[in-house]
């Protein structure tokens, strides 16, 4: 079975930037867009141009700057939004308009006070109108996660007939279970007429912590684009994290799916986005968190010192992290202490290690972590006690 490509659609600058306190200026957006282009992102969602003059300017400048990726702009199913997006994208080498409308009964009733038939009409209008400006039009069925599959297939069929090249199936509220989301994608693959002319895309939110699992279930069932953000930032609990889906597909080659992303730049890109947005990365964040390759319990450290494969499924160098860390705490054992001490130039006999380890435990019990400087102090204390 040949390996197929999953396109990575990054929405850090649009869904990610919707996070309170994460506002970026145009220069910052250009810096991030340039990095996204460099790491191999296929589509960069640069913003929602009609939302503000600042966003319009950012999308325009990003369109001029980006060399390889498609540059995408979001709109509602509103003619003026589409005209403004087309204008902002006019310098893009590969422009895409991302337009759509809510399709769940909840959205139809409470947001639009409308009917299913009217929603289909508006979807057709939006896609056809966007198509009059650009060739590449992505249609989103907002709240597709809570839209019944039969109606969703009807809307998607209409969108493809109107010229949509990509069908985005957002789990807007992060509600679906992975199995359910995967089945939704499979159903659409089998029931949308003309689907051979369009790519299905997963856009999953993380309200129940399932954004990444849902996106993977989506591609395992036939979707070929994942919408995601660096560090998983985004509305409320965030979006699917780019670094997670890229590494999952790499670590599970039996899925026969790959991306164009250069994983060696993942850690640095995560740090850069965190700095620019002023949004810190939780230490236990998969792939890019400070503790993602840190080992602190004695049992794990002993295994790691014998062979890294005991507790690491990814070589940290693969994602741009220099090396895994052995963190000394009161839970560490003799093996970790001897390993750390040796790295710092202390060769200890078994007897010396016993003495130093006793000193170490007394010291470590009073601290969260024993750092390199503390090791020098512990060595000195042990030496003095041995002489006395
Ligand atoms: O979550 C969502 O439904 C969205 C759409 C606007 C694509 O972000
Ligand atoms: Zn979203």
From TrEMBL:
Residues 6-267 form the Pyruvate carboxyltransferase domain. It comes from the Bacteria. Gene3D superfamilies: 1.10.238.260, Aldolase class I (3.20.20.70). InterPro entries: 2-IPM_HCS-like, AIPM/Hcit_synth_CS, Aldolase_TIM, LeuA/HCS_post-cat, PYR_CT. Its EC number is 2.3.3.13. GO terms for molecular function: 2-isopropylmalate synthase activity. Pathway: Amino-acid biosynthesis; L-leucine biosynthesis; L-leucine from 3-methyl-2-oxobutanoate: step 1/4. This is 2-isopropylmalate synthase. It comes from Gillisia lutea.
